[in-house]
């Protein structure tokens, strides 16, 4: 099954979620409640103490970012067909609260701020917080390729797999810092003065217009 350009094995997602103590049953499917917008949704039953946040944290530890469900729906029981099999057509559409949007926390430091500006433009959103997930905001494989190119133009180096595996903007920024020659400092850009002279001491921080594709 392909979701946002990535091949996702639903059974693998279900198996990872099923490892969480207190979870009784889980079913994951791809929903397209808005045409062209496919999203993974996890339906589950379990102990009263089990909640969506616990599932999200557990999933983030077990799965790459592009395989994380966008929504979690608790049910009293999974619907079954007369033959006793899961009735996927009877699974309800998730309500807005099921998507569990992260509370906004402003990006910190030059790397996070520049990444947030790029994400906001590529994904068509007003603001991006440091805990936001690229794929939950609507990212897919084609946008990920554009993101890598924009990052390279900003002298921020990270393998494309970092986007698929990191769960948040802050984690991607950490990958960028780890790949820099000076891990504790933001990458430095080589700026050009109007006369064409390269300035190796220019500080990090291109305006988003300067790194537009």
TrEMBL record:
Q: Residue ranges of the Carrier domain?
A: 106-183
Keywords from the named record: Phosphopantetheine, Phosphoprotein
Annotated GO biological process:
amino acid activation for nonribosomal peptide biosynthetic process; secondary metabolite biosynthetic process
Q: Does the keyword Lipid biosynthesis apply?
A: no
- Pfam families associated with the record: AMP-binding_C, PP-binding
One molecular function GO term is: phosphopantetheine binding
Q: Which InterPro entries match?
A: ACP-like_sf (IPR036736), AMP-bd_C (IPR025110), AMP-bd_C_sf (IPR045851), PP-bd_ACP (IPR009081), Ppantetheine_attach_site (IPR006162)
SUPFAM superfamilies on file = Acetyl-CoA synthetase-like, ACP-like
Report the cofactors: pantetheine 4'-phosphate
Gene Ontology cellular-component terms listed: cytoplasm
Phosphoprotein: is it a keyword of this entry? Answer: yes
* PROSITE patterns recorded: CARRIER (PS50075), PHOSPHOPANTETHEINE (PS00012)
Family to which this protein belongs: Belongs to the ATP-dependent AMP-binding enzyme family.
From the Swiss-Prot or TrEMBL record, give the protein name: Carrier domain-containing protein
Naturally occurring in which organism (per UniProt): Sorangium cellulosum (Polyangium cellulosum)
């Amino acid at each position: 099954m392909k979701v946002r350009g990535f091949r996702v094995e639903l059974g693998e997602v279900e198996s990872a979620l099923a490892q969480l103590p207190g979870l009784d049953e889980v079913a994951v499917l791809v929903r397209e409640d808005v045409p062209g917008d496919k999203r993974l949704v996890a339906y589950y039953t379990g102990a009263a103490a089990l909640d969506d946040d616990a599932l999200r944290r557990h999933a983030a530890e077990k799965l790459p970012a592009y395989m994380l469900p966008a929504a979690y729906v608790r049910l009293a029981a999974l619907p079954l067909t007369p033959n006793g099999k899961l009735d996927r057509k009877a699974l309800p559409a998730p309500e807005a609260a099921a998507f569990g949007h992260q509370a906004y926390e402003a990006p910190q430091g030059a790397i996070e701020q520049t990444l947030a500006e790029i994400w906001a433009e590529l994904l068509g959103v007003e603001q991006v917080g440091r805990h936001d997930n690229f794929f939950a905001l609507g990212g897919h494989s084609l946008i990920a390729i554009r993101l890598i190119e924009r990052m390279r133009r900003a002298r921020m180096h990270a393998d494309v797999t970092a986007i698929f595996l990191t769960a948040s903007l802050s984690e991607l920024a950490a990958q960028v810092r780890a790949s820099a020659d000076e891990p504790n400092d933001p990458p430095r850009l080589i700026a050009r003065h109007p006369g064409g002279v390269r300035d190796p001491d220019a500080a990090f921080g291109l305006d988003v217009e300067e790194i537009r594709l």
